[in-house]
Amino acid sequence: MVQGVLEVTVVSGRSLKNCDIIGENDAYVEVYTQKKYKQRTRTIKNSNNPEWNEQLRFNIHKGDDTIHFDVYDADLIGRDTIGKCKIKLKHVFDGGEFDEWIKLPAHLGLSTRGEIHVIMSFTPV
């Protein structure tokens, strides 16, 4: 497995499943390769089509082969899960870049809870 720096830009979300009764989601994304080290975007208030445009950097170590994106709706107390997805880093390593809309699958992957636009680039060390 390759070691290096992975730059992840969480660009935006579209058609995120609404978890709020009044108004729209207060959405943010947690991104991680290992659960003990998570980074997150800022919260975009009252939008099911948020624009984050945030860049995160991850040091990729031997054994890191998947990156996870967990999308949440922030509430006054706690949070609701909008959706989760993961990408094999092989897609980034092979092409050097990744620029796609990623679906947030619902139960059993039969429908979607929206999607997020993610751009990634990898620089080996």
In a few lines, what is going on in this structure?
This protein is 5% helix and 59% strand. The chain has 125 residues and is mainly beta.
Structure notes:
It is built from 1 helix and 8 strands, in the order E-E-E-E-E-E-H-E-E. It is mostly beta strands and 125 residues long. Strand 5 and strand 6 (79-88) form a beta hairpin.
Strand order of the largest sheet: 4-1-8-7
Please estimate the helix content.
Answer: under 10%
Question: Which structural class best describes the helix and strand composition?
Answer: mainly beta
Please, how many helices?
Answer: 1
Q: Order of SSEs, N→C?
A: EEEEEEHEE
Unreliable sequence segments? none
What overall geometry do the principal axes of the alpha carbons give?
elongated
Radius of gyration over C-alpha positions, nearest whole angstrom: 15 Å
* Strand elements, count: 8
N-C termini distance? 12 Å
User: So what's the oligomer here?
Assistant: single chain
Arithmetic mean of pLDDT: 92
Give a quick account of the main beta sheet: strands, pairing sense, barrel closure.
Answer: 4 strands, antiparallel
Strand residues, percent: over 45%
